[in-house]
Specification:
four-stranded antiparallel beta sheet, about 130 residues, about 25% helix, Tetrahydropterin Synthase, Chain A
Length: about 130
């Protein structure tokens, strides 16, 4: 099994609904997202997936979120914009693009700070 990963950063604001504490107030983070993709076979060039292609797919999602208030954007207008839900969002949105290459999103990790992160691993079989 081969695995590659790409990281991307963006800044956004949010407020956690139903949370009792500082994070219920509007605040922002400089997020970092790491997407890990795995698969059994390399292509004819010896790559699992071109880093440029994976980075481009992530960039498309990040551009929707960067420098916005997440609570105003779908699906976070209803779903709490926690690091956990952001990780699942990235996974769910990227999975079809990755799957069409015979690969899968193995995990997505989202950092809110340098020392706090959440990881989502889908329960999907290996390609």
């Amino acid at each position: 099994m081969f695995e590659i990963s790409v990281e991307y950063t963006f800044a956004a604001g949010h407020a956690l609904r139903g949370y009792k504490g500082k994070c219920e107030n509007v605040h922002g983070h400089n997020y970092k997202v790491q997407v890990m993709v795995d698969g059994e076979q390399l292509n004819s060039t010896g790559l699992l997936m071109d880093f440029v292609d994976l980075r481009g797919a992530i960039k498309g999602l990040v551009e929707r979120l960067d420098h916005h208030f997440l609570n105003d954007l779908k699906p976070f207008d209803e779903l709490n914009p926690s690091a956990e839900n952001l990780a699942k969002y990235f996974c769910d949105e990227l999975a079809p693009q990755v799957r069409e290459r015979g690969l899968r999103v193995q995990a997505v990790k989202v950092w809110e700070t340098d020392t706090t992160s959440a990881t989502y691993r889908p329960n999907t079989p290996a390609p």
